[in-house]
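Colleagues,

For the teaching module next term, I've prepared a clean inverse folding example: a structure given as tokens, and then the sequence designed for it. I'd like students to try predicting residues themselves before seeing the answer, so please don't circulate the second half yet.
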């Protein structure tokens, strides 16, 4: 990735497309536009993936529950995109087995689930689901509630590190000639003599400098902030912001080797628990987000109680309590509001609007980000001179990966993990590692060398950028890894170029942020 200073020096260039928003949708637009030969600039007001795209459920899934709600189009697109991501991002997007237990008292559920899974497999063009009896299911998940258990179904989905997926898409776009700048807040739209949008006014949050940047078209991919950007054209709000919260348990306390989905006893919503990065995630809630949008989203006490109630019913033998939770996180989903009382019934299909030279893309899911990007650029083609927005897949796919022989110092699992997250940079990452830095941070799969690499090469501005999005220690360790900061410091401080005062300020800032938005104490306040 280009350093921030290099990107700032390029802002006065003539751009075909400016993308507002550095989450997965904006990253997808940057990647697709660059592949089509367009000069594309991405601007993000906070850090890349700061919003929903680092706080998702980590599932790259086809949306089986949407099929049950009649949203077949969403499921179709999701299944097809999931299969593509599994092919293109091996090592970062990984297959995950998913179990759904069946209990007595729901007469039609086995038949409906079998039909749904058959359609699911048909969309993927592969048969993957199978049925287990009660005994076999209990052997697979010994902690599962056995009272009334009839058996269950297994099917195939996928998981990922969502923030790393955003970084990958951005890196692909940059490698093909695009540019991306974090901590660059778009504050207004520029207009030409005809009143059409022709660029943006952007403020560098780090220096306070404000610049005007021009482009043929602006694409609004601002996620939860989409309505704010659209309001500058006089457009009315259209989105509903829904918060999804998750609990993180140590793997030893909640051991799972595949995902388990179950109906919540209170309202029948699907809740899931699954293994991710040496922890177990439980999610998710679906409530209207009533907190200030620019504040770090945080789980409410009632959401924590809801999730604990669900897993207590599904896994009673574990006797999990709030004291077992290691951390929490919450993300805000922007969906098109239809006024339905139940937030979970709102459609997850994406929409694309064109207004005064600005294209807005909203809704959708992590899994379908490439589809959103293609649709947005196809809509923008009317304003792009020379046919730059024509559909197609001209150049490049994934950035070339490193030859595996350069990673001979690592076992196969660590090698695959590094290649999945860093591609051709994995060999350089290994070469830059200091003594002992090819060992994992205790309690995680993350190598110390990954911290050094991210600090030096991945546009880190604040300590939370590094620990919550580049390497995820903040999600995976007690107290967000605060107890390891003395060991982290000599690895990353020289690469970041921070003096002692800056390090102390960043440490205090990070610990305060983690306690306010990620701590399990939120469940009991």
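(Answer key — instructors only)
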């Amino acid at each position: 990735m280009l350093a921030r200073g290099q990107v700032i020096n390029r802002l006065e260039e003539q751009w075909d497309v400016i993308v507002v928003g550095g989450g997965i949708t904006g990253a997808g637009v940057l990647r697709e536009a660059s592949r089509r030969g367009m000069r594309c600039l991405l601007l993000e007001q906070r850090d890349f993936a700061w919003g929903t795209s680092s706080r998702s459920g980590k599932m790259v899934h086809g949306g089986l529950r949407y099929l049950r709600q009649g949203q077949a189009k969403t499921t179709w697109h999701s299944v097809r995109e999931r299969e593509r991501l599994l092919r293109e991002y091996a090592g970062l997007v990984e297959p995950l087995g998913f179990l759904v237990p069946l209990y007595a008292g729901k007469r039609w559920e086995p038949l409906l689930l079998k039909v749904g899974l058959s359609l699911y497999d048909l969309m993927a063009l592969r048969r993957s689901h199978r049925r287990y009896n009660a005994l076999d299911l209990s052997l697979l998940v010994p902690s599962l509630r056995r009272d009334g258990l009839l058996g269950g179904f297994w099917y195939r989905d996928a998981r990922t590190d969502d923030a790393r997926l955003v970084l990958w898409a951005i890196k692909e776009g940059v490698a093909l000639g695009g540019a991306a700048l974090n901590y660059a807040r778009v504050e207004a739209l520029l207009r030409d003599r005809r009143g059409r949008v022709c660029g943006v006014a952007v403020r560098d949050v780090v220096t306070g400098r404000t610049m005007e940047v021009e482009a043929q078209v602006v694409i609004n991919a601002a996620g939860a902030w989409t309505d704010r950007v659209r309001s500058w054209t006089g457009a009315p709000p259209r989105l509903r912001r829904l918060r999804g919260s998750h609990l993180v348990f140590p793997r030893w306390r909640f051991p799972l080797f595949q995902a388990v989905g179950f109906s919540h006893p209170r309202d029948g919503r699907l809740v899931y628990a699954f293994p991710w990065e040496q922890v177990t995630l439980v999610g998710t809630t679906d409530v209207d987000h009533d907190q200030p949008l620019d504040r770090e989203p945080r789980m409410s006490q009632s959401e924590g109680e809801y999730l604990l109630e669900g897993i207590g019913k599904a896994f009673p033998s574990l006797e999990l309590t709030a004291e077992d939770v290691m951390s929490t996180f919450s993300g805000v989903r922007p969906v098109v509001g239809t006024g339905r009382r139940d937030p979970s019934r709102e459609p997850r299909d994406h929409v694309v609007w064109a207004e005064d030279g600005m294209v807005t893309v909203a809704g959708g899911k992590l899994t379908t980000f490439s589809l959103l990007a293609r649709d947005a650029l196809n809509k923008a083609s009317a304003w792009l001179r020379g046919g730059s927005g024509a559909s197609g897949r001209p150049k490049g796919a994934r950035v070339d990966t490193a030859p595996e022989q350069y990673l001979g110092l690592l076992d196969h699992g660590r090698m695959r993990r590094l290649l999945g997250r860093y591609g051709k940079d994995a060999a350089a990452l290994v070469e830059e590692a200091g003594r002992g830095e090819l060992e994992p941070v205790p309690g995680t799969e993350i190598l110390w060398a990954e911290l050094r690499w991210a600090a030096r090469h991945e546009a880190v501005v604040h300590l939370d950028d590094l620990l919550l999005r580049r390497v995820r220690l903040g999600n995976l360790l007690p107290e967000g890894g605060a107890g390891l900061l003395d060991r982290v410091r000599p690895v990353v401080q020289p690469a970041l170029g921070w003096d002692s005062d800056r390090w102390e300020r960043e440490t205090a800032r990070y610990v305060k942020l983690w306690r306010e938005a990620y701590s399990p104490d939120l469940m009991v306040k």
